[in-house]
Please model this.
Amino acid sequence: MSHRVRGTLDALVDDENRLLRPIGMSAREAAARTGDLLGRLADTPGVRVFAGVRPTKYSPRIGFAVCTASHVLLVESVAWPSGAYTVTAQGRVLCDGTYIGQSVHPLLGSVRLLRRLVHRRQIGAVVVVHPSGRGTPTLPARSPAGPAWLTPDEVRPHIGRRLLLRRRETTYCHLDTNSW
Model:
């Protein structure tokens, strides 16, 4: 990861309480793979990348927050084996129609909380899904209410379109990863 990434992934732990978690690799390994994809963004003027953020005092840490003067994007990382993944209206993640004990509800709750706290910024979330094992997972459909589900190849173009190409930012945002 770039030297401009603030924070560390050291506090990411594999825990059954994580409602989005990788299968077949550790949470830190999945986040590190995503961090490699985000490294160049941290070198872009006006963009800050924070690692190991905690949106609320009691929530598990999220891999990254990418921030500009007008946007904050929470970036979570998972690794899933092949299968057809969907998300219910309640945020439960299903693989081939079976609930796998994971949910996007806490991530979306963090987005809602940040929207209440930071009125002038657009807040969103993405989940980067790294394949684990053979085959490629089929990602959940994108919905306006949910996070964007991205393959590793989609991360840079999606975040670039979402944050950088709308407007070049010249001011920096300051987030304290210890309080998150």
